[in-house]
Amino acid sequence: MSRAAIQFLGLDFSEGEVRAAVLSRQLTVTARKATKILNARRDEERGAVEVPAAEWLRAAGYVLQEIYLDLPVALRRIWGIGLASPPGWIALDFDLEPLGDLRLLPDEGIAADIRRWRTENPRLARRVACILSPKDYYRFAISGALAADVTAASRQGLLIEGQSRWDEDRLAAEDLDSGWLPPVFDCDVRTGRISEQGMRQTGLPGGLWLVAGGLSSSCSRIASGDLRRGKLWIAPRARRIVFGASTDPAAVPDGFSRHPSVYTGGLDLEWRPDPEGEAEGDPGLDRAGEEAARRLERAGLEVEAIVRNEGPGELGAAALAAIGSGLVSGWDDLYARWEPV
């Protein structure tokens, strides 16, 4: 089979559905598919959504089977998969089985949510062996690999500044054990291959790679255009405003936080407007974006444009797989040939 037939899969979870996309080596969209995630429950008191672990696996396995079977036989040469999901967590026991449901909630609330759960469930807490993000739980389920990515880990405020390593002091302050957490990788790094169990769950062939992937919002950013530097991106669904910086500023503008980018080696300056402010679709987020641009420019960071479109996270995840494969030579090559949706 021609190397030109190689395809890349992207998978993006959300509270209510999981979406898959296939991107060809020529960077055209070959197929897209989605399916509902059932039995999710909203924990209004704590601002979280709970999803049964088995349902998380079922929905993803189903959509992967369907999209693979929809491909013409000549195009069923998948190199690998990129994963995306919202922030959240799940605890596994010493047999690496779930100790409860997946919990989806904002990154800044994850550590406190884990502490609360441990206090309320002391018997289960004594059995914790591993804590994973939602997408990283799916990686483990279909590959056996334990990994995290920099976009999710850094936004919890638990990494050493400027590095992809957990900060022991910050973990201790949050009453977290570094032994529970997987190693952290850049988003396009290979993190293992699909296992026999994963092949049974998904219907996919053996040998597929999985790259580290990223937060849904970060993967959406990839699919929104070339936002590596100079562009201010407004993401209403994630209520994030992100600026891609070409250099590390001497001082972070007021209201912003500094994070490693979904683009390896890049830097994100991120501002999250007040969640109690205007709802999605209201003009408030646009006003916040304009204020963010003013703050950046006062700090000497030129904003070339404000971008408001949100690309599909599953396409961004597939693009990470394409970069990780080495068959696309880098982001310059990808954006020269790919017009994101």
Summarize the structure.
30% of the residues lie in helices and 26% in strands.
Which SSEs are present, and which pair or pack?
Blueprint: E1 6-13, E2 17-24, E3 29-36, E4 41-43, E5 48-51, H1 53-70, E6 77-85, E7 88-92, E8 102-104, H2 110-120, H3 122-125, E9 130-132, H4 134-143, E10 148-149, H5 150-154, H6 168-173, E11 184-185, E12 190-193, H7 196-202, E13 209-211, E14 214-215, H8 216-222, E15 231-235, E16 240-245, E17 257-260, E18 267-271, H9 284-298, E19 305-307, H10 313-325, H11 331-337
Parallel strand pairs: 1-6, 6-13, 6-14, 10-11, 15-19
Antiparallel strand pairs: 1-2, 2-3, 4-5, 5-8, 7-8, 7-9, 12-13, 15-16, 16-18, 17-18
Mean pLDDT: 92
Strands, total number: 19
**Helix and strand pattern:** EEEEEHEEEHHEHEHHEEHEEHEEEEHEHH
Shape: globular
The largest sheet, given as strand count, sense and whether it forms a barrel, is: 7 strands, mixed
Number of helices: 11
Percentage of β-strand residues: 25-35%
Low-confidence stretches: 277-282
Coarse structural class: alpha/beta
Radius of gyration (CA) equals 19 Å
Helix content: 25-40%
Taking the alpha carbons of the first and last residues, their distance comes to 28 Å
